[in-house]
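The following block was generated as part of the benchmark described in Methods. Ligand: phenylalanine.
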Amino acid sequence: RSDFTLRGGSAAKVLVLGAGVAGLACAYELGKAGYDCTVLEARDRVGGRSMTLRGGDVVSELAEVPGSGAHTSAPVPPLTAGTPSPGARGETQRVTFGEGTYFNAGPARIAQWMVTLDYCRELGVPLEVFVNGNAAAYVLTGGMRAPARVRTARADAYGYISELLAKATDAGALDTRLTGADKERLLDFLSHFGDIGASHAYSGGERRGYRVDPGVGTGAELGPPPPLTDVLSARLGRVLTMDAGYEQAMPMFQPVGGMDAIVRALAARVGAARIRTGTRVTKIMNRPDGVEVTVEGGASLRADYCVAALPPHLLAKIPGNLGADVQSALATPVPLSAGKLGLEYGRRWWEIEDRIYGGATETDLDIGHIWYPSYGFHGERGLVVGYYNTSQDAEAYDRLRHRERLRRALVQGAKIHGRAYAKGILAAVSVAWRRQPHIEGAWVRWPSMSGFSLLQRPAGRVYFAGDWLTHLIAWQAGAFESARKVVTELHHRVLKES
Ligand code: PHE
């Protein structure tokens, strides 16, 4: 059963540039309607940023962070003697995870409302819950002396905020805003929201958790909450609302066995014979009767239409005749940095000792988040994401070699999990998206929206697709939505012109 289907068919030839989610989805949808598609992919694997790493995989990085002169303030330490040529290979990591361990180095979570789930259904990709928020995980901010469980920090924050609001209400401070009945209702709400009882004073309670969980005994409570000033100093607003956003709310989902199940299923439907990996595009030309795309080595391919589904910052560097306005629009989005570290442990200590089954610890350390796996519970091994950072934090890790990233992440993680955090690691791999060949960024930011609408339209016979052309940047759903829009428009044109 398919949700999206182009009406009527065509056998027109289409060259799709890029075998990421957007490119594969275009080829898949056009293929369903009879089009003759060929997908050109510069990397040696399909999927683009939808990259799941397993034992046996090899991850190569560029020798330099691209454009590091322009976008980063600190100088890039040379990794080897001499200056590497642009595009030169840098460090290579060999992934040695055990059987069954996987690491979603790119996209990892899907919200219920996203079209990505419709593709999982259509493609028969089985799903399981991705635990995004977990009350048992920790928060740690610079304003805290020690990490706290999310549940404890939340109970204290809600409790004191409720107390303050209830006391202000009782003192008449809100009388201009509230009727007598409103006050009554607000106080009732706050008594539940903050668990503050009739006294309107927060004094802790079971929501904070226990030192010893209840069982045959009543349980040993955690003790009284810290003073209000400590709770405010912790600046918990951001870390406690991570999963409140529309894109991050539970339940979220992941494909069983790794995110790349989606791109693998797409590639299988498109057909391996139509996908040419290791094929870098060097020129894109609109001709009067079609498009001509040249690839490394000098061969050129002709088609009726082209869908360019590469990152804009790479597309902008490919010569051709798309026009100066299009070229400058393509050069507008700024590639951003993000990085992830996969740590494979030989023992699932976070489940056994910390009683954390999936979810994320939120910090304002340079590691950003620690993620606990949502699969393989109680298995022998487990894959923790030791950092998932963005912006300047990611830029700092980008510049490091893998060993150095690992060392730094373990020092940071020990602030939450103690010295055991660095013990029992079987394998580790880090991905710095700015240094991934033929990708060179985690996602993009539009510093101004100029050029955004120009690229929604084709340049001659060349269409553009990708998450970067939507309001869902950094989501596979953006790539799918863009692909659907582009193939619809291309198809209408083909039907009109035939
Ligand atoms: N989609 C990515 C994630 O889930 C990046 C992102 C984060 C995008 C937060 C928007 C908001 O982490």
